Amino acid sequence: MRCDHSEPEQNAETVGREAAAFALEIGAVRLSPEDPFTWASGYRMPIYNDNRLLMRYPRGRALVRAGFLGHSGLGEAGDIQGVAGTASAGIAPAAVLAEALGTDFYYVRSSVKGHGLARKIEGLSREEGLLAKPLAGRRILLVEDLISTGGSAVAAAEALLEAGADLVGCGAIFSYGFDEAPRAFSRLATPCPLWTIFDLECLLGVAAEQGGLSQEDMETIRRWRQDPFGWGEGR
């Protein structure tokens, strides 16, 4: 297993391909159209993703950091005054990016905490926690580890907007490319550009180059992407 500490090049497309290759190498993404995985939802799917494994290794963290820093969506955001990760898998990549940018870090819970200060956004000071709009005027980038239907990321975006944040976008490590995700983001009251370090098409291309995926397998996975929740029926 290659777990070197070298920094990848900063070109976003190059880093995306390197991230996809490394994710396949360490099993952070697994493709199995003939023997599908059962997701937590109970649906049978030909792909499984665990970006927490990607964040385990120095090489993985370096690729994630370079992928975010080199992405045009981040460059267009201007001065970012905070990075907010989704709980819980988005926390690690958000913290890595916030450190690289030298800016504040927050994370957004899936629901309001039921004890203590009963917050949904963590990282606020005591004084900020008393304000109706604690992030008013602050340019915040949302970071998610994985985009599927976009539901959890959109919920986090809504929480940041309610807190007054100027939401400059949402960056994620990986996306399945479901049509529902951009539709979900389009329903936000304020536009929030969505982009990823690598996506399913990039992943399939890298897997095919490595010889681990036949053309038939690629077409099977593309059919799954068109109807992910109907694809596994009868399997």
UniProtKB/TrEMBL annotation:
Binding sites annotated in the UniProt record for 5-phospho-alpha-D-ribose 1-diphosphate: 109, 113, 115, 144-152
Pfam families in UniProt: Pribosyltran
Catalytic activity: orotidine 5'-phosphate + diphosphate = orotate + 5-phospho-alpha-D-ribose 1-diphosphate
A GO molecular-function descriptor: magnesium ion binding
Tagged with keyword Glycosyltransferase: yes
Role played: Catalyzes the transfer of a ribosyl phosphate group from 5-phosphoribose 1-diphosphate to orotate, leading to the formation of orotidine monophosphate (OMP).
Assembly and binders: Homodimer.
Protein name according to UniProt: Orotate phosphoribosyltransferase
Species annotation: Alkalispirochaeta americana
Gene (name only): pyrE
